[in-house]
Amino acid sequence: MSEQDSEPVLDVDFFRRWLTTAAASMEREADHLTQLDSAIGDADHGSNLQRGFRAVTGALEKEPPATPGATLVLAGRQLISTVGGASGPLYGTLLRRTGKALGDSAEVTPAQLAEALGAGVAAVAQLGGAKAGDKTMIDALEPAVAALATSFAAASAAAEEGAVATVPLQARKGRASYLGERSIGHQDPGATSSALLIAALAATAGE
Ligand code: ADP
Ligand code: MG
């Protein structure tokens, strides 16, 4: 904690706790996420993320990284290698790119994290080709990044709102898009898990 500055600084322990909290959320919500994916996908989103985040917590215990950036890069790498499907590379890219944007700093400010997460979300949009309104994880992540300028709690609320707002949308990317109009009326699983990831961030920050 800097003495001159009242803004909190986020250290490697904060990032480790964020990911551990997210992993616990994925365990708790796995059945729900899989249920959402059974309506408009192939019923594996919960088990995909459960497997991926177990690998993340395992890797963080086995070889604890020294910096926030390295923590996210390691987590992203684990998700890419264990999750598969569409969401593995997308979530992996999100965390890896965010981690790379944080560089080698031992501590980062919330403003630096907001900027880095913005780069991570942009990389997800580029990889998956999804825009806001396509009924994907982008619909939770983009509003969350915008609201991070206000607070972690605002980001969490914006992500949750974005996830709920996918219900009336028709999917234009991913497996759900194969359903055409039949994808309308269901909440997107990836937007829902993204809201869990941002809620875990707010919880870690004590908001
Ligand atoms: P799969 O679709 O391969 O079974 P998952 O079920 O784990 O993978 O994840 C599905 C979620 O991935 C969707 O709910 C959506 O949010 C997200 N997704 C799929 N394709 C894209 C894409 N092109 N861009 C962004 N997100 C996507
Ligand atoms: Mg699926």
UniProtKB/TrEMBL annotation:
Residues 13-203 form the DhaL domain. It comes from the Bacteria. Keywords: Kinase, Transferase. PROSITE patterns: DHAL. GO terms for molecular function: kinase activity. NCBIfam families: dha_L_ycgS. This is Dihydroxyacetone kinase subunit L.
